[in-house]
């Protein structure tokens, strides 16, 4: 595959978004990431959504969850583990 | 050194959301962003890299020495805005996107001629604006190389007509690669040419270590 140092695909950006938000990308990767944002509205929206989600998640604590919400999440996780073959 | 910053409306940094203090009767106040990492800080670009960072507003900025060289950008721990480049606005952006699309058209037409598709090439070169380019590109129906190349022109024209000038200029630059037979270096070469066009049209001086 030809990798252009001045270019990045949307898929690559999605794979790198967590590291970008955490500030752990290499200088070269960060630059390619931001150059991509200059011409890709969809990835700008995606990045904004990820930022908002991360910001909201940081404000959540176990105590802030209502009991019924907590139980629904636990059920979902148990079901997900069973469906993916993990131990319950 | 004097460099350039593209910003979102309201002098907002597009990636961090930082609102830059704008000049008022003289240079704007210095902004500090010290970091142990050399690649972090106040970023700007040289005239030759303008095409990579397009946004709504363009500002002339001063970076305090030492200034580090990054990929397509320069970085310093202190910077300030000097003045807005008033020549850059929606009209200039539209002209820029059209010029880039017509350059892509020329490259595609040359590739088609080399491959023996003279009629398709002639049809493309007859159009002189984006609407004409869009119609001419859509009319090319020869399978294989012509169809794959004009797809770039259709997208470049459509996005420019929709007002999405950075996307259009990017697609036009991407078209340089398949038009050359797959040489990825042509993308950077076309971006550099776009930047020279921008600098000339906006009356920006060349890249020198101009100290204010």
| Topology pattern of chain B, helix = H, strand = E | EEEEEEEHHHHHH
- Shape estimate of chain B: elongated
What's the N-to-C terminus distance of chain A?
A: 41 Å
Percentage of residues in strands of chain B: 15-25%
Bulk shape of chain A: elongated
Number of domains of chain B: 2
Name the average pLDDT of chain A.
84
Oligomer: heterodimer
Q: Give the helix level of chain B as a range of percent.
A: 40-55%
Q: How confident overall, as mean pLDDT of chain B?
A: 92
Secondary structure: number of strands of chain A: 0
C-alpha termini separation of chain B: 7 Å
* Integer-rounded radius of gyration of chain B: 19 Å
Spatial ordering of strands, largest sheet of chain B = 1-4-7-2
Task: Provide the structure class of chain B.
Answer: alpha+beta
Low-confidence segments of chain B, given as residue ranges, are none
Helix tally of chain A?
A: 4
Residues in helix, % of chain A: over 70%
Spans where pLDDT lies below 50 across 5 or more residues of chain A: none
Major sheet of chain B, described briefly?
Answer: 4 strands, antiparallel
């Amino acid at each position: 595959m030809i990798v252009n140092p001045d270019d990045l695909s949307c898929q690559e950006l999605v794979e790198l978004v967590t590291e970008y938000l955490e500030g752990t990308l290499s200088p070269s990767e960060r630059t390619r990431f931001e150059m991509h944002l200059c011409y890709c509205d969809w990835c700008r929206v995606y990045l904004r959504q990820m930022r908002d989600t991360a910001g909201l998640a940081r404000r959540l604590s176990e105590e802030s969850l209502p009991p019924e919400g907590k139980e629904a999440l636990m059920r979902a996780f148990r079901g997900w583990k069973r469906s993916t073959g993990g131990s319950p | 050194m004097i460099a350039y910053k593209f910003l979102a409306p309201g002098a907002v940094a597009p990636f961090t959301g930082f609102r830059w203090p704008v000049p008022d009767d003289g240079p704007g106040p210095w902004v500090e962003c010290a970091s142990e990492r050399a690649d972090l800080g106040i970023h700007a670009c040289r005239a030759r890299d303008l095409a990579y960072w397009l946004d709504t507003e363009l500002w002339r900025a001063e970076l305090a020495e030492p200034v580090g060289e990054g990929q397509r950008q320069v970085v310093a721990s202190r910077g300030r805005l000097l003045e807005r480049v008033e020549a850059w606005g929606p009209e200039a952006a539209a002209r820029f996107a059209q010029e880039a699309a017509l350059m892509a058209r020329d490259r595609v037409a040359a590739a088609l001629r080399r491959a023996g598709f003279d009629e398709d090439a002639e049809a493309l070169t007859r159009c002189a604006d984006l609407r004409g380019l869009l119609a001419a590109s859509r009319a090319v129906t020869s399978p294989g190389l012509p169809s794959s190349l004009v797809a770039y022109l259709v997208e470049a024209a459509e996005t420019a007509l929709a007002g999405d000038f950075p996307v259009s200029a990017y697609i036009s630059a991407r078209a340089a690669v398949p038009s050359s037979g797959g040489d990825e270096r042509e993308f950077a070469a076309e971006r550099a040419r776009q930047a020279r066009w921008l600098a000339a049209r906006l009356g920006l001086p060349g890249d020198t270590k101009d100290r204010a």
